[in-house]
Queue: 4 jobs
Job 1
Amino acid sequence: MNVLLVLVLLALCRPVQGTWDNCGASCGLRPLAHRYGASRVVGGTDAQPGAWPWMVSIQIVWEGGVVQHICGGSLISAQWVLTAAHCFLENRPELLWRVVIGANRLSQMGPEVQVRHIQRLLIHEHYNNISQLNDIALLELDHPVQCSYYVQLACVPDASLRVSELKNCYVSGWGATNARSSRRPDVLQEAPVHLLNTHLCNSSRWYAGAIHSNNLCAGYAYGIIDTCQGDSGGPLVCKDTTADYFWLVGVTSWGKGCARAKQPGVYTSTQHFYDWILVQMGLRPAATATPTQHVPFTYAPSQTPRPIPTQSSQFDSCPFPRPKLVEFFTRVQELLQALRGKNV
Ligand code: 4AZ
């Protein structure tokens, strides 16, 4: 009887376990997470390959082939990357931009790494480059990526997620590891951060009113651990309170210096832009008349009409119910094994 139940459960789990080579309907999962120890980090540390599989590096390839990492970003569907609008302030579509997905050490990109070009850049129509309000942008890739152990989608929360209750939050990026040095790490850095109360963050000795309701503050009151230049556009993720997947709650936006006391990192809160994201991706009709700034990328290899997103279900159903199902069936399997061990 037990064997039969396990077989049924395994059959039910199969589509979930089989989603690693196409993103399926899952997001926020880290297939290689079992490889990492539960090490505590002080400041940024090298991330393990595949640790943050939605993390992308947005780069410029200069004439002569020199590659420069400009900003981070997060893969939210097989063909869309969420990033910061200010990464494209000196917007130069004539340059050769590229998006690197699945990388860990930028100088040694193995077969797990996928490189795409930007088909379209969509900057928020109300982005303000003084206040950094609405510092959010979407990149449409020229071709969809293949999901794998190293490439997974991030989960964008809608308004129903109680973000302030999330506890295990992390930032990652290839940005500067020291505020006073422009040297950039080769290996992806990661650090745990705390979500900080927005009222405290806006108080007179902190950011004195510069924090908007569409922002999140994350880091530490005493500084030391923070994002920095080059981390912009990258993810602030928090683990779900009940299951083993991560929410993309913020896009790295700005901060006064890096890692200073009472001046934590400021992030664009993704849940406030959930509807905007859906509209831009063509998954929901636009309600407003203001068009988003569409920047054509002339070098995009194919100038074919924009394909109809085929990944809509991945974003729409994100993250429920698959991660919850994985969690549920894992618990049931553990229970069955425990019962079997007791010969019940
Ligand atoms: C930047 O310039 C930047 N300390 C990103 C994050 C922070 C500061 C600056 C937060 O990309």
Job 2
Amino acid sequence: MTDNKETVRKLITNGGKTPLCFLHSFGCRQNVSDGEKILGLLCDIGYGVTEDITAADLIIYNTCAVREGAELKVYSLVGNLKNLKKKKPELIIGLCGCMAQQEKTVEKIKKSYPYVDIVFGTFALEKLPELLYKVLIERKQAVDIGEYSTEFPEDIRPVRTDRLNASVPIMYGCNNFCSYCIVPYVRGRERSRRPEAVIAEVKELADSGCKEIMLLGQNVNSYGNTLDEKINFSELLRRINDIDGDFRVRFMSSHPKDATKELIDTIIDCDKICKHLHLPLQSGSDRILAAMNRKYTAEKYMETVNYARSRIPDFSFSTDIIIGFPNETAEDFADTMKIVRQVKYDNIFSFIYSKRTGTRAAGMEDLTSDEEKKARMKELLEVQREISSGNFKRFIGRTLTVLFDSDDGDGIFSGKSDEFIIVRAEADSSVIGTVRKVRITKSFNWALQGEII
Ligand code: SAH
Ligand code: SF4
Ligand code: F3S
């Protein structure tokens, strides 16, 4: 392989010029993190990185398969590349990530998008240099969706696209098989990284000035289950909290079936951990939760929320909700709305159910109409808008800790508070990349405004 890597390096840098790659990751933070590893591999063989797609010698779309909409978007973008490839026959086009891990995608690309040069799935990430070799030497489409293995690419150094706010995967894959979800099929079984590897990465990021670290896993609450060492997620959080440095820590996602009091206590006790929990509800109906294979009830979910609120009365929660799971009735939806009103989330990410081939729910008959689903979504969004605007008022007069990362124009800058709420303030560009205390003076239904002290 090393020889092939050298050959690829020679071929792409022919004439001494640095070839450029453009990579875009869709989907979740885990996928964005994989994209950073792919950039690491590419830079290692001699590519430079560009954000201008027309200047690129290699274009890679790192795709998501979680809903049909995500897939359609990629097909449309790949379709648009046909003309670019005509003008620039040397251009190499690659498709990778969760969508590319599926046989049906490989078939479709072979049949309808023959100008795509490389297709590689999440199991074959580290094979990219080998695939480039095939394309450059043999000049034909190279496909590898890999054999599932329990290994993961521990030795690839990511090229981080955001140094302020970095992602650190603590585990890969998922064992939960929620009946609607494609993730376990395209990411394989759950496996945890060793705590020493996670801690070394966090230390290095903290030392290099990173201010926020997001720990990633499809269910961080089962961290450690595949390790010989006896360690759970709360213990990992405590060890990370003990690392010296001026940074804060978030994590996602946390499965309600495995959320414990110990986890809530750890969040509250550790000063570097943000006091916010993203706890995906999906549905408030026990009947639908069972059909979804979520393994908790609305009551168990509320126990976690109530425990957190017994320790911090306005503890911040956000959630994911699926509307229109097969045969969700008006009553089931009312159960979801009941929980939404009880919890008073600071933020909700809601999705209309999308049938995913190969999952258990794909075989379920569904009699609920699209109109009904859209009406439920509208109702959820309206109620949540009211809840957020009511919720956010509680911060007026309080001082929040904000990591500024965005210039909104007209002298207004914004960032996220520990509670994961957008906070805006008048400032100058020196505020970007710094953590500031902000006294809140005004609230909207989507953000807060205040003065930096
Ligand atoms: N592992 C994470 C979520 C991964 S997918 C967790 O369990 O929370 C992110 C979100 O997409 C899910 O929480 C769910 O709300 C949504 N989702 C997953 N599959 C979906 C589907 N088939 N249709 C609609 N939404 C879906
Ligand atoms: Fe999908 Fe469920 Fe796994 Fe999350 S926990 S990735 S929703 S199967
Ligand atoms: Fe993430 Fe989408 Fe894959 S949500 S794990 S990129 S299917």
Job 3
Amino acid sequence: MKKLIKNDIYWVGKIDWELRRFHGEELSTHKGSSYNSYLIKGEKTVLIDTVWLPYAKEFVENLKSEIDLNSIDYIIVNHGEVDHSGSLVELMKYIPNTPIYCTANAVKSLKGQYHQDWNFHIVKTGDKLDIGNGRELMFIEMAMLHWPDSMATYLTKDNILFSNDTFGQHLASDRLFNDLVDKCDLMSEAMKYYANIINPYAAILKKKLNEIASFNLPIEIIATSHGIIWRDRPMEIIEKYTEWCSDYQENQVSIIYDTMWNGTKTLAEKIAEGISLENPDLKVKVFNRARCDESDLIVETFKSKMIVIGSPTVGNNMIHGMAGFLNLVKEAKFRNKKAVAFGCYGWSGEAVKIINEMLRSANFEVISDGFRNQWNLDATTEELAIEFGKQIAKEV
Ligand code: FEO
């Protein structure tokens, strides 16, 4: 079902209500998502992006019910990832010669995935395509936001930025616009999307936001490729991204631990107590990693000034799940954050040192050798753990 965006511009995407994992099993999407495709039905008919492969037939059937596919003059592929390009093979069966406008890298990603030699037209930043009615599409390369092939497309006169993944959120809703949905839900999903997907490229994003600002384009609508469209004060999400890509922090410390027999759990709680005693204004959150969603923990890490990572020693190492999580933390490429390790052990006790090494390799400033406790806490070591928490609060 198509939905009107503005004038002769329609949403023709797919709402994926049941999606709970994305990028394979890597990312949680508790509230579903959508794959936003857009149709401009002007003097020229233009399709911007498609939808994920499993919905290809449904997408093309819906499109056929709206227009004669042969009337599509141009297809714009802002990004080759399968959630946006996945319906091209089905669509191009009907209109194999229709020109596809995309970046040079998108030609590589599309050919690499679909092994088709479509009628590609390579575009670069500043290139324009006249679509009649006094309107042009202007292309803006968005390399590494978040793939090398990404770009955004700006529609003049209607002042719409089709931003693809950037500014998106995994949020399924039949309310298409940001003034129609719960703002807390929206901003929380926008931050989760940013922290997990865009943050590794924060430095590139910062330059790109400045470049886009230098074009002085009036932006009335930001039409993303996932979730909700920003039409009410669209610059607000650009301002948020500017804030988020500038070493964002809240006044928070996150303690994230794994535990086998609750020794490291008890230690985590004593450390939290020490932090709160030393600085009651500092927000302390405590998470058992194994019982939390790791994509959500990446958001908590994003918000934190410091993370305190705990694991008991098992097999001369940390618990394997924590090693996987720290890999994820490293991938997120956080900057300007501190960290330290802790953990209980029975015999050899290597985990704390190994965690600290991983935190350093993930670009965290590690504030000390950490806190190790052999066997369970007693009254003396409880006090030491509380003191360790107080030291953390002083270092934040
Ligand atoms: Fe939503 Fe990078 O694809």
Job 4
Amino acid sequence: MSMLEVKGLAVRYGRHEALHEVSINVAEGETVVILGANGAGKTSLMNAIAGRVSPFSGSIRFLGEEIDDQPSHDRVEAGIALVPEGRGIFPGLSVRDNLKLGGYPKRARENAGSTMERVLTLFPRLAERLDQLAGTMSGGEQQMVAIGRAVMSAPKLLMLDEPSLGLAPIVTQQLFGDLERVRQAGTSMLVVEQNVRAGLKLADRGYLLTAGRIVREAAAADLQGDPDVSRAFLGGLEDAVH
Ligand code: ATP
């Protein structure tokens, strides 16, 4: 059964149609990557699924239920967690408090202690820095805080919007190693990435989004080196493809 099923989704900002008839799905335990150049509509897709923007048309089902009309906090309760582009952590709070804030959904509260232990095992660096203000952490560490906070909500589907943005290649590599462990623990993931190589290495399957439309869908291994993918990223991003 599909965990997430998006059908015919359109998102408009005034007269600009950012997403046109977008249909994607994520199966239980699957990791799916959305590839696309700047402005392709990746963030609009994530935000629509998380309930941060209202679709113009189409439907979004999660675990068999239509969630289109649910506010974003209900979607978090249902098991959808978004790590937004730019991370969205609280810089003036400690790492510990940022993580604790992630554990607010009812579903997550009961096991908050063991989930915290799990997060600190996944990200040992955070265990060393629990009392540090999140805003003083490095970019890669802040991304770990953001992901750790999302994991604290015990998500069934973890969505990540460009986790590698602004990170040095070596830090990106470490981060994707961490995400691989999250994947192996059985959490389904939907990841938006411009770093094609890293995204495809992590994912089981991928979609290529170009100018608001899904133009390609295939197993991640088949998208590696795909000419459509390379073409979509021409103009400075070829390095990420090859
Ligand atoms: P990037 O990789 O650069 O973040 P993206 O693939 O995530 O891009 P979106 O942020 O979803 O793309 O934007 C898709 C299109 O919609 C862009 O042309 C963008 O300018 C436009 N857009 C996004 N948000 C708004 C908004 N709030 N109002 C008007 N236009 C918007």
